[in-house]
Amino acid sequence: APDEDDHTGAVAASDDDDDDLATSLIATVRAQFEEELQPEEQRWLTRETAQAYVDRCRGKPESKRVKMLSDALRWRIQRRDVLSSRESPFVIAGNSRAHDARIFGVDRDGDCVIMNCFALSRDYSPRGVSDHLACLFERAIDEFPKEAQARTRWTWVIDVHGFGVQH
Questions:
Q1: Which one of 30, 89, 98, 160 is most buried, counting C-beta atoms within 10 A?
Q2: Which residues, at least 6 apart from 146, have a Cβ–Cβ distance to it below 8 Å?
Q3: 111 touches 153 (CB < 8 A)
C-alpha cells in the first residue's frame, strides 16, 4: 500500500511522479527561453537541476516551481559570460586580490571545502561579490561532482580576521 503523507488520506508522491514533475518543469521553462538558450544554459538545465526545484517547492503550485526555475535561468543568461568562464572577472582582469574565497579540496565526507578571509578582499561591491562566488560555486560543482542532494553540501571556513563595516 502507498505511504500516506498525512491523516487526510492523501497519498505521498512516488519517485515516478517526481520524474514527471521534473521533466514537465524543464519542458515548460525551456519553451519560455527557447531562443535564448546557449550551451552554458543547456549544460545547467538538467533533470537533476529541475528536481531540486521540484523538491524545494513540494506542496506549492506548479507556477511557483516554474517561476523559481525561470528566474534562476534568466539570472544565468544575464551572467552567461561570467558563469561560462568559471573565473571571477576580477581574476581575468588581473586583479586577483579583489575577492578572497578559494576551493581547498574536499573534507572526509567528500564535501567541497571553501575558505575565505575578509582581510584579503579589496572589492566589496554586491555584483563583484556575487559574480566571484557564482564562479567559485560553478567550479566547485564541476571539479567535485556529487550526486543530487549531496551536491548542495559544502564546508565553508570563514576567517573573520579583518571583518569590518565595509563588509
A1: 98
A2: 110, 111, 153
A3: yes
Handedness of CA 114, 117, 123, 127 (dihedral sign): positive
What's CA 115's distance to the chain center, in Å? 18
* Cell numbers given for 53: 526545484
Name the strand (E) or helix (H) holding 72: helix 62-78
Strand order of the β-sheet with 112-117 is 102-106, 112-117, 154-159
- Tens of pLDDT, residue by residue over 95-119, are 666 677 888 888 888 888 988 888 8
Between the CA of residue 43 and those of 73, 84, 135, what are the distances in Å?
A: 12, 10, 15
Q: What single-letter amino acid sits at 7?
A: H
| CA-to-CA separations, 161 to 55, 147, 167, in angstroms, rounded | 37, 34, 12
Do residues 110 and 152 touch, judged by C-beta distance below 8 A? no
Contact 140, 103 (CB under 8 A): yes
Predicted TM-score (pTM) of this structure:
0.71
Q: Is the Cβ–Cβ distance between 28 and 67 less than 8 Å?
A: no
